[in-house]
Amino acid sequence: MSKDIQKTIAKIFTEVSDGLMTGKMGKRPKIAVTGIGSEHGEQNIMNAAQSASKYGIDVTFIGSLQENGVTTELVKTEEECHNKMGCLLEEKQVDAVVTMHYPFPIGVSTVGRITTPGTGKQIFIATTTGTSATDRVEAMVRNTIYGIIAAKSCGIARPTVGILNIDGAQQVYSVLKQLVEKGYDINFAESQRADGGCIFRGNDILTGSADVIVCDSLTGNIIIKMLSSFTTGGSYESVGFGYGPGIGKGYEKIVMIVSRASGVPVIEGAIRYAADLVNGGYLNILKSECAAAEKAGLNSILEARKASAKKDTSEEEVIAPKEEVVTAQLSGIDIMDLDDAVKSLWKVGIYASSGMGCTGPIILVSEANEQKAMEILIKDGWITQ
User: Fold this and answer.
1) In the annotation, is 290 catalytic?
2) Distance, first Cα to last Cα, the chain
3) Which of 81, 215, 290, 358 is catalytic?
4) What is the pLDDT of residues 318-358, one digit of tens each?
5) What are phi and psi of 380, to 5 degrees?
6) What parts of the chain have a pLDDT lower than 50?
7) How far apart are CA 233 and CA 235, in angstroms?
8) What is the CA radius of gyration of the chain?
9) pTM (2 d.p.)
């Protein structure tokens, strides 16, 4: 019997043995983790690597420590860690890496994964670091797609999507609805609050009302930091799976980000998150979802929105109609559109004023003008029907 055949047989028996112990059959994902730079010391990362290796994952530790259960690539500095990590990725010696810092290009941002304190449900925060686009609304639209990609790669066939009620949320929803109308599948979630809808408030994060929560990356970063370290007072992240993989069209590396404050449970979670992506066919899902969104006109819809936004109405003098009592509230307007939406009603002779309700920005009109004003705002695109 040749040595190659012996190696193949040995590999098969090893995979069967691992499958019986872990409940997972097939090729073991190979995940590298950088060990130098943690605020909690290098041993913190090594302990997480050893723990993750028990789940049928081949873990490579890049650092100065050597322990049973993991392979070590010996380096002495953080710079050497990143150089070795880059080599392992480029040479395809590992399927993914977990690290505490990485300079993603514009167009790539990370989708975090966390366990909600209210229900214990795992949700994806899209996104938590990086920048999907320099335009806020475009970035959040792309974040939605990236969140769906991450969730599908982790085994959720048709993830639900909620949009956090922050600046730009209504514009994002309008773009996403156009995508849906043109064939891209988005499964909008329903808020647990009485008024429902897919525009989410903070309560919905805690209860896990959607599989994917869409926001800008700075807001997402704050959310994941708070949820992961809430019970420890902030200095040690003890819950969740880290800040996630950098996702973007054509970006085919799996680079997972964790914080320097991340503790053993989060580092272990990030390694297992990476393994889930590898096992779930992440790269194929990335390509297919990006292609599906573009087929539905993603780029043309975003360009049309930008062109519309460039129409400068600030220099156009619009005189407010005679003031009247306004008690009817019209919601669903984005904060960034509020002034222009009010002026669009003034142009047709309807007196309106702006305000802020408990669910966000509102326009106030008289009871008599409520229906007509709503029709105008929908027709002009300030409110999504």
Assistant:
1) no
2) 71
3) 358
4) 888 998 888 888 888 877 788 888 988 999 999 998 886 65
5) -80, -5
6) 7, 20, 22, 312-313
7) 6
8) 24
9) 0.83
